[in-house]
Amino acid sequence: MDRFNAMRVFTRIVDLGGFAKAADSLQMPRASVTVLIKQLEAHLGVQLLLRTTRQVTPTLDGAAYYQRCVRLLADLEETEAVFSVARHNPRGTLRIDMPAGIGRLVVIPALPAFSERYPLIDLEIGLNDRPVDLIREGVDCVLRGGLCLDDSLVARPLLALEQVTCASPAYLRRRGVPQSLDDLAGHQMIEYFSSVSGKRYGLEFEVQGQVLLPELPKQVSVNSADGYLAACEAGYGLVQTPYYHVAQQLAEGRLSEVLRHIPPPRMPLSALYPPHRHLSTRVRVFVDWLVELFAQPGIHNTRLA
Q1: Four-way CATH pick for 163-265: 3.20.20.150, 3.40.50.300, 3.40.30.10, 3.40.190.10
Q2: pTM for the whole structure
């Protein structure tokens, strides 16, 4: 039995929560994955995994073994990277996840430069706004806006996103263009809510270092960034979003910015990854590349400041 491969298979099963998912992720026959785990459990003399028809979870021994395997595999990868060409030319699959808007409009258009620099890294990119369980879903790194509320993750700040308040021209013709926060009394907002946590987000304005949250009525609530803007274009009310996400709509006149002199607070953008991924050369070079990308002067043309 190849113990290194067995540990790699075992950690992937725990990460993804199933034998089939692990086999697909590692591009191995499912029967081979099952045999490896049986051999590993026999070698150690303990049961590592609890199998049911619906899920696979580690036993107490399995959870302890998993933590040690993660550290060992990360150390091994780092050691090989230090003493091999992989340090300068890392290879393998990097699984990343980011909001659809920033991926489509900012990161993916710039990715050819990353791939030219690191041609042996294959990228698997998820584009969505939902929270991602990095461990269970086998994701190496995510980009997220807002404060990181998960202390178990390492957060690498990238920049602060300038946000804008906007509405459709038709809506503003009906309700008027607000010139002050007092003028919001005659307006309504579109609410954004998280389908996972249930948290709901209204409008925020920064005035003399204080964040004000005016209470506005709402007729529509949505749980996706694209749906949020679609409702705004349809005339359902005011929204607040990072500038890059509405730059095209503003340029084409489909949306209009209001209250520019009273901006929303800037939204921090960070790269997040599990602590044991910090030794991964692939994660390290990708996050370093992101820092370079968002530090480029041209990025400021989209008011990413």
Answers
A1: 3.40.190.10
A2: 0.63
